[in-house]
Amino acid sequence: MAYILNIETATKNCSVTIANEGKTIVCLEVADEGYSHAEKLHLFFEEALRKAGITFQDLKAVAVSKGPGSYTGLRIGVSAAKGLCYSLNIPLIATDTLEALARRISIENGCIVPMIDARRMEVFASGFDQNYVKQFETRADIIDADSYSDLAGTIHLIGDGAPKCKEILNSERFVYHDEVIYPSSNEMSAMSFDKYKKSDFVDVAYFEPFYLKDFVMTTKPKV
C-alpha cells in the first residue's frame, strides 16, 4: 500500500487528498471561502485520514503543489508538507500546479493552456497537449492580441486567469471553460504516485515553492 497525502494550496482552493497507488480515496476541498488555507488545512488532514481509515504513520510520502500561484498559499502548503515529512521521516514530492490544472479537462486535439490569475492582464500559464505533455514552460504572460499565436489548432483556456482574456482572445480557436476551475489535489494523485515510483523526491530542508515572480509587499497609502 502506497498511501500519499496530496496538498494543493496554490490558489483559493484549499485541497487535500489521500491516494493509494495513485488513485484518490478521499478528497476534501473548499474554494468558496477565499484564502482559508491556514484555518482549514490541518483539519482536512485529520478528516481525510479518518475517512480513509488510516493514520499518519501509514503514509509513504507527502506531495505538495509547487506553484506558481499565491505566495501565501504556497508557503502554507509547503510548510505543512515539510513539517509532516520531518516528523514522519518520509519523502517530499513536488508536483506542477499548472499540470494538475490542465488535467482537470480532457481534449482530443489541440492544446490546453492552464492559467492562474496574476495582476491586471497578466497570468501564470503553461501549455499541454492532449496527453498532458508540456508544450511550453511555465511563464508569466501579459495577454494581448498576439498571445499564443504560435500554438497550432484549438486552444483550451482553463483556470481563474482565463475569464479576463475573453475580450482580447476572442477568435474561434480559443475555447473557454466557463466555470472558474482551480487546480485540485485530486489530479495530483496519479502525478505524485508516478514520481514516488521513480523516487523523484525533493530535499525537505531546501525545497522552496516555484513563485515564478518575486513577492512584492505593498502598503496602503496614508490618508
Shape: elongated
Largest sheet, in brief, is: 5 strands, mixed
| Number of extended strands | 10
Task: Determine the structural class based on helices, strands and strand pairing.
Answer: alpha/beta
Mean pLDDT: 93
Number of helices: 4
Q: Regions with pLDDT < 50 over 5+ consecutive residues?
A: 215-223
What order do the SSEs take from the amino end to the carboxyl end, as H and E?
EEEHEHEHEEEEEH
Side-by-side strand order of the widest sheet: 3-2-1-4-5
Q: Cα distance, first to last residue?
A: 60 Å
What is the percent of helical residues? 10-25%
Query: From the structure provided, what is the oligomeric state, counting identical versus distinct chains?
Result: single chain
Strand content: 25-35%
Gyration radius from CA atoms, angstroms: 18 Å
Commentary on this structure:
- It is a single chain.
- The chain is an alpha/beta fold and 223 residues long.
- 22% of the residues lie in helices and 28% in strands.
- It is built from four helices and ten strands; from the N terminus they run βββαβαβαβββββα.
- It has helices spanning 37-52, 71-88, 97-102, 188-197, and strands spanning 3-8, 14-20, 23-30, 59-65, 92-95, 111-117, 122-128, 134-142, 155-158, 174-176.
- The chain has a five-stranded mixed beta sheet with strand order 3-2-1-4-5, with helices on both faces. A five-stranded mixed beta sheet has the order 8-7-6-9-10.
- Helix 1 crosses helix 2 (71-88).
- The longest helix is centred in the middle third of the chain and has 18 residues, at 71-88.
- The N and C termini lie far apart (60 Å).
- Mean pLDDT is 93; it is low at 215-223.
